[in-house]
Amino acid sequence: MRTLVLLGIVGLLAQLVDGSLGMGYGVTSATLLLLIGANPAAASATVHMAQIGTTLAAGVSHWRFGNVDWRVVRRIALPGGIGAFLGAAFLSWLSTEAAGPLMSGILLALGGYILLRFTVWDTPRGNLGKPVRKRFLAPLGLAAGFIDSTGGGGWGPIGTPALLAGGRIEPRKVIGSIDTSEFVVALASSLGFVIGLGLSGINLAWVAVLLIGGVIAAPIAAWVVRLLPPRMLGSLVGGVIVLTNVHAILGGDLIELPGAAQVAAYLTAVLAWAGAVAWSLRAHLADREAERRVAAGSAGVEEIEEPFRVDVRD
């Protein structure tokens, strides 16, 4: 019972993160499932079956708040579904001994990418309003869908930064479009796992509690995306994912280090995470101060011009 309650809370928090950043639900949930001893293929299958409901709820919520670019959804969803189905079939075929390190490695890389993405890089806006190229979206969807199934997550961490990097779509519409198209990815991935594992290999109770938590959080996240500083949240979540999967890799069969070396590796990761969060906070405060100065300068110009206005009726 305790495990189910914990998973429900994780589902809620993971969807809150995902709906706010456009990434994080699968990576966060799959990391926890691996941590409590789930089979890698079963963990990814559980997450993706729950995501059928959470992504549907998230898509409806983002649509109602005007956060969806349907041209992007149409062009990226189908290739993403194909890649997800192939990834699910591949992971179901692998042995547990091979799949465990592979999934932990993918999750570690994705967590590190999220951490760097929201700590160091800003969002370009120079091409805002220009259409996204079709030949870019199809390969992106195929690759992101495949990695999403094999790693238990990855659609958001790959798709969201790739669309943000072009600066052609508003950040909130990037997040909303990625979350909405993920419904097709989750559906195709789940179908692949059901064919490969059968329903007996998937814990439906875990699916249900992850789904309930995610559905509750979906409308909240669609609203929060307009208010929450993404740099801070991205750094915090990326650090949690990195630390958890560093523990999984160093404490498992992939890498065997002496106890002192493991402690040193953990401390290094914690210090790097703390530095990233501090950097993100500093960058966020600097951005706010710059916006305040621009707003104050605009207000000052209006005050200067006001006394010199002439009423032509006089």
From TrEMBL:
Subcellular location: Cell membrane; Membrane
Protein name (Swiss-Prot/TrEMBL): Probable membrane transporter protein
Family stated for the protein in its record: Belongs to the 4-toluene sulfonate uptake permease (TSUP) (TC 2.A.102) family.
One of the Pfam families matching this protein, by short name: TauE
GO cellular component assignments: plasma membrane
Source organism (scientific name): Spinactinospora alkalitolerans
InterPro entries in alphabetical order: TM_pro_TauE-like, TSUP/Inactive_protease-like
Bilayer disposition of the protein: Multi-pass membrane protein
Chain ranges passing through the membrane: 43-64, 76-96, 102-120, 182-199, 205-225, 232-251, 263-283
PANTHER family given in the database record: MEMBRANE TRANSPORTER PROTEIN MJ0441-RELATED, MEMBRANE TRANSPORTER PROTEIN YTNM-RELATED
Record keywords, A-Z: Cell membrane, Membrane, Transmembrane, Transmembrane helix
